[in-house]
Amino acid sequence: MDKTAQLICSYASGLKFNDLGPETVHQAKRTIIDTLGCAMGGYSSAPTGIARDMALNVTSSTPSRILGTDSFSSPDMAAFANGVMLRYLDCNDSYFSPGGGHPSDMIPAALAPAAPAGCDGQTFITSVVLAYEVFCRLSDQVVASEFGWDQGMFGVIGAACAAGKALGLDREKMGHAISLALVPHLPLGVTRTGELSMWKGCAGANAAKAGVFAAQLAAAGMTGPAAPFEGRRGLWEQAVGRPVELDSLAGLGQTFAISQTTFKSYPSQIHTQTPIALSLELRPRLTIEDIESINIHVYRAAAGSKDSNPEKWAPKTRETADHSIPYLVATALQDGAVTSDSFSDQRLQDPSLAALVNKVVILEDKEYTRKYPAEFNCGST
User: Fold this and answer.
1) What is the mean pLDDT of the chain?
2) Residues 6 or more apart from 294 whose CB is under 8 A from it?
3) Residue 252 — very low, low, confident or very high, per pLDDT cuts 50/70/90?
4) Separation of alpha carbons 89 and 59, rounded Å
5) How far is residue 52's CA from residue 122's CA, in Å, rounded to a whole number?
6) Which DSSP string do the residues of 95-151 spell out, in sequence order?
7) What residues have CB less than 8 Å from 16, skipping those under 6 apart?
8) What is d(CA 92, CA 70) in angstroms, rounded to the nearest whole number?
9) For residue 221, is it left (φ>0), alpha (ψ between -120 and 50) or beta?
10) How far apart, in whole angstroms, are the C-alpha atoms of residue 378 and residue 381?
11) Residues 135, 106: contact at Cβ < 8 Å?
12) What is the mean pLDDT of residues 122-144?
């Protein structure tokens, strides 16, 4: 087993509930509740309906519940259906780091095998904290999008650890679960490029599904490549192109990554949160008809233009609109709120809203860029 795999599987198999501390446990409970709320909000969405119908076609001797129903499926398919559900609104938590992402996408991988495996609440919470720690610390070291990959690149590893913890895998089998999750599943960055499709909200769920399946394979005795990270044609050589040193994972008395995540106020991408809040604050001072242009100043990761991101100024799908600062600024100014109703076909096709969207200009503020990701600032002129 290579160095990174050894570090992660030893940590994953050895982590105990008593290692977490009361503050970490409290944050884990808050995160789980927030995630379940997001799932209920996405229950009736079209992507969730598709995923749920597919999951209902699968029966299992280790049944796992599909959230919001009295129905069961296999643990991997339940993880997928539940993951699509919680991700649909784009309101689940975010982790701010150079890589970042939505670590709560992995919670279904902890939840799905927990009941059939007979896990107690302490084991479930530990597996959630574990998934966050692995995903976030890897994201600290590698910005997956810079190499053309999606965030599921590390989500699938965290998901495998979470599912493996629920299944009680020992160190050796945990190592195989990590390898079996990573080697077959490198998601392309096109998931979040251009006009976004339904798959944008399903990619994290697919990582959860793959992580559960990998843990089940390892539990049954399947082996995976011994050096998935440092090995020849492994992750660092093939996908990143350079060696990567995973510094450490949180130990007793240290701060766990789950305590460094951010909850959202609006059902949209994390970079849109402060522009929405700013627009709602400015709205009482403005007359919509008098607006000639709106300049929104943000850090580099949130900046863009009509030339580089034309779809953000004319979104045709909900998935594109909830990632569009111009659309969301215009919606906040016109409606005085951003909710799940802000992305209906009627709103997406509203000519008066489209006219206001086209008045929005997104500009990088270099001081904001310098302070990011410690701060995610926004201003306007």
Assistant:
1) 95
2) 329, 333, 359, 360, 361, 380
3) low
4) 28
5) 28
6) E-SSS-B-GGGGHHHHHTTTTTTT--HHHHHHHHHHHHHHHHHHHHH--GGGGTB-T
7) 126
8) 24
9) left
10) 11
11) yes
12) 96
pTM assigned to the model: 0.93
Residue 68 falls in which region: left (phi positive, over 0), alpha (psi -120 to 50) or beta:
left
Query: With the CA atoms of 51, 57, 60 and 64 taken in that order, what torsion angle do they form, in degrees rounded to the nearest 10?
Result: 30
Tell me which residue of 155, 168, 136, 186 sits closest to 87, measured CA to CA: 155
Question: Could you tell me the pLDDT band of residue 310, with boundaries at 50, 70 and 90?
Answer: very high
Rounded CA-CA distance 381/172 in Å is 57
Among residues 58, 102, 97, 95, the alpha carbon closest in space to that of 80 is found at 58
CB 336 within 8 A of CB 276: no
Q: Which of 350, 302, 323 is nearest to 87 (CA)?
A: 323
The values of phi and psi at residue 373, to 5°, are: -95, 10
Measure the CA angle with vertex 122, ends 120 and 127; round to 5°: 100
Q: Which residues on adjacent β-strands are paired with residue 315? A: none
The CA distances from residue 301 to 54, 195, 263, 270, in Å, are 36, 18, 19, 11
- pLDDT at residue 86 greater than cutoff 70: yes
Q: How far is residue 275 CA from its own chain's centroid?
A: 20
**Residues 318-329, buried b or exposed e (16+ Cβ, 10 A)?**
bbbbbbbbbbbb
Q: What span, in angstroms and rounded, lies between the C-alpha atoms of 314 and 334?
A: 16
Q: Can you give the pLDDT at residue 142?
A: 94
Per-residue pLDDT tens over the stretch 256-275 = 999 999 999 999 999 999 99
